[in-house]
Amino acid sequence: MRSAPDLHSGLSALRGDHFDVVVLDAYVPDGAGLANVSLVRAEAPQLPIIVAGEADDEAVALEAVHAGAQDYLVKSQLNPGWLERSIRYAIERHRMDSALLDAEKRYHSVFDHLVEGIFQTTPEGRYLMANAALARIYGDSSPEQLIQRVTDIGRRLYVEEGRRDQFVRLMQEHDTITGFESQIYRKDGTVIWISENCRAIRDPQGRLLYYEGTVEDITQRRQVEENLRNSETLYHSLVETLPQNIFRKDLQERFTFANQQFCKVLGRKLEDIVGKTDFDFFPRELAEKYQRDDRRVMETMQPYDTVEENQPPGGDKIYVQVVKTPLKDAAGKVIGLQGIFWDITEKRLAEEKLQRANADLARSEEQLHAKNVQMEDDLKMACEIQLTMLPQQYPTFPRGVPQKDSAFQFTHRYHPTGTVGGDFFTVSALSDDVAAVFICDVAGHGVRSALVTAMIRALVEELKPVTGNPGRFLTKLNSDLHAILRHTGTPLLTTAFYLVADRKTGMMRYANAGHPKPLHLKRKEGRIEPLANVSGKSQPALGLFEQNVYQSSEVKLSPQDLIMLFTDGLYEVQFPNNELYTQELLLQGVNKRAQLPAAQLFDELLAEIKAVSGEGFSDDVCLVGMEFAGSQSPS
């Protein structure tokens, strides 16, 4: 338990330690009465607050509770038991409130991330509620946009006129509907198939209130079904038009199907063939041979490929290529066989054609090999070009002084895992006094990631007018990148961090777009602190949301301080025991080397991670260090 004589001391104590409850004098010195509750909540939003005051007034107590307090106690009525009970109740009520809020957040998280769309509509056809999945299915950016856009479901949504009327009629008859499949218009005008499940919600008197249900996008399934129907139609079309003879038999060797070519060879109609056997059409010797082959196929369940003699009724003997395969039902049980045969008199011509085709294939393989070699050369060149995009030398502050006398000293290490990588950084001088450092990480480490880093580099060059304000810089970069990537259909996750440091004032401003928090090594104090946003909340990566606004934060630099920036490839390394090299282990590795020069620190840290992982890094790695020598210019 700690006590503080005034509000300022109390707020300082809250910043420096962990507490379970705050008992606050309503009129603590240097405070503002019951407004103190809001000040304490702003400093420690997760702590329950009990207010103690002189006034035995219900209005004052209600005002304290409305301000955010868990309880109000009258000083003149206090005793140890009452105070202890109030503290216990306040902590428990606060715990229950927090659990309720967490449960509500989890519910909304599940609701908004379901694959199926969920809706509530009026019987007249207006949306009352929709989740994010339904908005996504219908092509809207949010449920609110969907509800505002589709004000008449019958006219604005369904492709088929009167489809909503059919829906309402079925609901009136049954109160539920399952698998109601329809074509609908998305926001962009494209047509998709959906399946709706719905039920009617009524009040205790049986009056209809609204409809609620789910929607599933079945466009792909309908396309598969249509493809299957087309495939079956195509199969029968092919079977009937192929020049080969095709037939099927059951287990009793009776014909169950024959194509038109087979009927033509036998000189019979299909109805005169189905149900008959080989003995009805071929000489006994041939019929016995055919059936021996058939039984072997059905007993062994193996295909049979051979050259046979065939004598059509009234014709001469010919040699045919025969392929027989077992027919199986859905359970894998043999139910007969299928055969196909064709005249091989022209076999030599076919073999010659095959030889020519093989020669063409060989030439194609040679051409493909040449293209692969060219592609490898192109990738090597791309790697060389990408390396030239990184700083080849660092600016000095002020301009013109030797590198060793610069107020800011820079170091970097860059290790792409592929030929080209998705990490990028730049160091620039905004003036003689102000340095700027930008680092980003595009997901992946291939050509796509490298192309995005090239675009980001170009955008960074275009954004020089706003480079002095990190928040505005990332906000504009995010907007421009989103405008480019939204046309690709699949945005790449891109994190970034940007800082601006002034050598005269020692102030450093920065903004973060979903990037790993850089480390601030306060060498004189012997402390390391991650650079968090001033709001305490993470901000999203670049290119995901068009209108996102990034905030600037600031920190004071002291001489000998080191700012260490890095990409997530540095710590997302798997050990042989399948454990990961976490950010906590990274912090420990940096802490024991905090007093080393940045270059030596980086090299030892990279060597340690490679040694413990056994296989090195699985993702691109980029480290950038900025050491602050001090605000005074060298003599």
Keywords:
635 residues, alpha+beta, five-stranded antiparallel beta sheet, 17 helices, 23 strands, 38% helix, 25% strand, extended
Describe the structure.
The protein is built from 17 helices and 23 strands. The chain has 635 residues and is of the alpha+beta class. The strands form five sheets. Strands 5-4-8-7-6 form a five-stranded antiparallel β-sheet, sandwiched between helices. A five-stranded antiparallel β-sheet has the order 10-9-13-12-11. A five-stranded antiparallel β-sheet has the order 14-23-22-19-20, covered by helices on one side. Strand 19 and strand 20 form a beta hairpin. Helix 5 packs across helix 6. The longest helix has 43 residues, at 347-389. The two termini are 53 Å apart. The mean pLDDT is 86.
**Average residue-wise pLDDT:** 86
Please list the strands of the largest sheet in the order they lie side by side.
5-4-8-7-6
Roughly how many Å apart are the termini?
A: 53 Å
The biggest sheet amounts to: 5 strands, antiparallel
Helix/strand-derived category reads alpha+beta
3D shape:
extended
Q: Beta fraction of the residues?
A: 15-25%
Counting DSSP H or I runs of 4 or more residues, the number of helices is 17
Radius of gyration: 38 Å
Q: Based on DSSP secondary structure assignment, what is the total number of beta strands? A: 23
List low-confidence stretches: none
Fraction of residues in helices? 25-40%
